[in-house]
Amino acid sequence: MNINGDATKQNTYDAIVIGSGISGGWAAKELCEKGLKTLVLERGRDVRHIVDYPTATLNPWEFPHRNRMPEAFDQQNPIATKCYALDESTQQFFVKDAEHPYVQEKPFDWIRGYQVGGKSLIWARQTQRWSKFDFEANARDGAAIDWPIRYEDIAPWYSHVEKFVGISGNKDGLETLPMANF
Ligand SMILES: Cc1cc2nc3c(=O)[nH]c(=O)nc-3n(C[C@H](O)[C@H](O)[C@H](O)COP(=O)(O)OP(=O)(O)OC[C@H]3O[C@@H](n4cnc5c(N)ncnc54)[C@H](O)[C@@H]3O)c2cc1C
């Protein structure tokens, strides 16, 4: 008889992260680095570096429709095609409307990418810090609820992420756009 007596122990985790996008991926990274036994569950396919980028080196004229989605596709995907980045070169990273329809009680354009890395594979890499003006805006204008934190509280955490991710940009010295760890 071949019974795995350690099965429960082997399948017990300190933390389980659902989804491997920027949020889940980063959470899992932090948890692992803190020594927690972490399980990441991802619904989408694995995207292997290079081999799963079949369109990366193609020119627009090498696509069937010059890298634009045909009209029939637009009609079948009124939500997904609202995203400017969905074209013939990137379509494999977007969930099509019919693949996973959802109920909209109010208009809500939900752009989704089901794969390891989630939408981090299609985002535009624009990352600006909020400034002190943003954190103080509600209190200053008397609108809604004051933020419980200020720029100084979050600044070290911005640095923590920026250094790992490799954010690039210009050190312009603008108070409204605080300088990051470029
Ligand atoms: C074209 C485009 C450009 C963008 N550009 C920028 C930009 O320049 N700057 C910026 O700040 N933001 C940008 N964004 C927004 C940014 O990319 C997203 O806010 C961010 O990537 C979302 O990360 P997330 O981890 O919350 O979600 P997602 O990346 O959507 O990750 C969710 C993950 O969970 C998985 N999942 C879902 N359901 C389940 C389930 N039931 N079980 C298991 N796994 C599941 C999904 O497959 C996916 O991998 C852009 C978005 C798009 C679409």
Tags for this entry?
182 residues, mainly alpha, 3 domains, two-stranded parallel sheet, 4% strand, binds flavin-adenine dinucleotide
Structural write-up:
The longest helix has 15 residues, at 151-165. This protein has 5 helices and 2 strands, in the order αβαβααα. It is globular, with a radius of gyration of 21 Å. Helices cover 26% and strands 4% of the residues. The mean pLDDT is 95. It folds into 3 domains: 14-41, no CATH class; 55-111 and 118-124, no CATH class; 125-182, no CATH class. A two-stranded parallel ribbon has the order 1-2. Bound molecules: flavin-adenine dinucleotide. Flavin-adenine dinucleotide (FAD) binds next to helix 2.
Q: What's a quick, concise take on this entry?
A:
This protein is mostly helical and 182 residues long. The protein folds into 3 domains: 14-41, no CATH class; 55-111 and 118-124, no CATH class; 125-182, no CATH class. It has helices spanning 7-10, 22-33, 71-76, 132-141, 151-165; strands at residues 15-18, 38-41.
| Ligand kinds | flavin-adenine dinucleotide
What's the main sheet like? 2 strands, parallel
User: Portion of residues in helices?
Assistant: 25-40%
Span from first to last CA? 59 Å
Mean pLDDT: 95
- Helix and strand content put the structural class at mainly alpha
Element string (H = helix, E = strand): HEHEHHH
Q: Please report the total strand number as a whole number.
A: 2
